Amino acid sequence: MQLNKNKLPLYIVSSILFGLKTYIAYRFLFNISIENFLQEIILIINPVASALLVFAVSVWLKEKWQMRYLRYSALLGSLILYFNLIFYRNFTDFLTLPVLFQGSNAADLGSSILALMYLPDIFLFTDVLIIWYLSKKHYFPVKESYKKKSKKLAIIAVTSTLFVNFVLAEIERPQLLQRAFDREYLVKNLGIFNFHIYDLVLQSKTKVQRVFADGTEMTEIREYVKNHQSSKEVSDLFGVAEDKNVIIVSLESVQSFVINNTVNGEEITPFLNELIEESYYFENFYHQTEQGKTSDHEFLVDNSLYPLPRGAVYFTHSQNEYNPLPELLKGQGYYSTVFHANNKSFWNRDVMYENNGYDHFYEEEAYEINDDNSVGWGLKDKPFFEQSLKYLQSIPQPFYSRFITLTNHYPFNLGEDDASIEPYDSNSKTLNQYFPTVRYTDEALALFFEQLKESGLYEDSIILIMGDHYGISDFHNNAMSEFLDKEEITPYDQVQLQRVPFLIHIPGHSGETISKVSGQIDVKPTLLNLLGVKNDKDIVFGTDIFTDTSKDNFIALRNGSFISENYIYTKNQCYDRLTGEVLAIDGNALQSPKAGDNPCEPIKENAEKELSYSDKIVYGDLFRFYDFDEK
Ligand code: GP9
Ligand code: MN
What's the whole-number average pLDDT of the chain? Predict the structure, then answer.
């Protein structure tokens, strides 16, 4: 009895050894960036937590199996880690199931695998050797039978380390699992093994929904799209930009409330304000993104489908069949690229872009990034545009190119030298700092326009500029109401704050401000009409913004709110869009054209239907049953 107590609980020793090895690998072999102390702590805890989860199982096994289990799981874990390392050396990315089984990435790797393996890698298996040696009871007596109490202790050890890991990860990245920003974040916070489990769950869920779908829903959806769209009506601008280059600039976190507005008496966006005078400007244009933030806006723009209510469609459904702009435009001779100086796997962009038919993604590695030219999330917008231009000049024309800016990203950090205006003064540091970074992005845009003109590309291009999503959340409503000089931010105001600037700049066209209610869902059909591309069989949920408003036109937000020409519906309340007056609450009309009716109700039904159709397409991967080219 006494003897057993002094015996080595090998599962604990193994967890520490394996955890420590994994931490060293994260830190020195994978290029995982650590930004603060909390991240460092998480990085140490998570491999121990995952190892404990696996190794602790051994205490329930029969004595004969315990040591074998520990030996082989240590080996298997090390091999998984090592495969990831080899993959990472080539792609600076972690393995995921779709990449392993469907992508060309893994196939590419096959041929170069030997070149990515180095002799010192052997040290990655040191812990396996030690565990193996100890398990043979060579040195220490090893504990092989566990009493109830010790088994309970094992459960407590596993759950508490996982819990601490999860809580710290939640503090560091709220909603990490639902939002799945980036594989590096997931690995950093959960550990590579829990990340694989997460990936497995996600993948199985996706697969099940897909398996149970058949093409029958497409007929109904097609009917709905045909009846509810005005995309068939042709606006006067049909074909005005035929064969022109298309440049889309996505302005990180820029909301409409900064347009033609001032802070401390200074204009916030002088360049955009000027540009509006020479562009089509949509003053009631809404972002429709949800958890996938920037990537959701990219999805909306390229597909005119809604992003998902949970998670980022770029992650969860990157293997679906779509009919995205780059693919459609390829048929018109267009070359498609994205310019964005961030890690290519962020939002799973590398995988989704390939699926969406982009010819090239100029990501972090295409840029020279150093301490001087970066701030916050990375390369500052001015050098970003400067460095992008040479690439833009070199690609085949006509091109479809998206530029995604980064400087105006939360927490809106900017060096003093780059700040042309003073921050605002309120109790929200976030809102205060927002203005100088918005101004910086505005200046970067001005510079980009100059460069486009100098390079001669300007005349042959149309330029679409758009805010991707909100930058200031409702958490800052106190400061926001102060800035907007309002008593409070009501739910109605909150919806109105979801407006983001949208400009279509066509050289030679004079400016026009358009008040029609519109949103990111409308970009694809609008752009295709400008380019003179007819596609009657396309399934899009947006309409060409330049055509007349149909009377049931509405813009649905992903949180259940919507905006129609006359009403705004949010949080169970129906408002008059123009006055903000409450017309109905919870289905009961206070005052409406027909007493007893809630004027928002019929639109609400349509909005819900439309969102559910779009979700069906994505969850069921329904486009695989639909022929877009059939005459
Ligand atoms: C990251 C950038 C910002 O690459 O697009 O992402 P966000 O957090 O805004 O979605
Ligand atoms: Mn963004």
Answer: 90
Compute the average pLDDT of residues 425-429. Answer: 94
Ligand 1 centroid, distance to 394 Cα (angstroms): 26
**369 CA distance to ligand 2 middle (Å):** 20
Average confidence (pLDDT) over 581-593: 74
* Catalytic residue set: 294
pLDDT at 512: 97
Joined together, the tokens standing for residue 88 give 């990472």
Omega cis (within 30) before 602: no
Quickly state the pLDDT bin for 631 (edges 50, 70, 90). low
pTM higher than 0.85 = no
Instruction: Identify the band that residue 91 occupies on the pLDDT scale cut at 50, 70 and 90.
Output: low
- Element (H or E) spanning 573, and its range? strand 573-576
Cβ 405 under 6 angstroms from ligand 1: no
In the chain, where does the domain assigned CATH 3.40.720.10 lie?
217-625
Between CA 310 and CA 177 the distance in angstroms is 10
Report every protein residue that has its C-beta within 5 angstroms of ion ligand 2: 252, 293-294, 468
Distance between Cα 407 and ligand 2 center (Å): 10
Return all residues near 322 (Cβ < 8 A) that are at least 6 apart: 302, 303, 305, 355, 356, 623
Whether ligand 1 lies within 6 angstroms of the CB of 505 is answered as no
Pick the CATH number of 217-625 from 3.20.20.80, 3.40.720.10, 3.40.50.1580, 3.40.50.620: 3.40.720.10
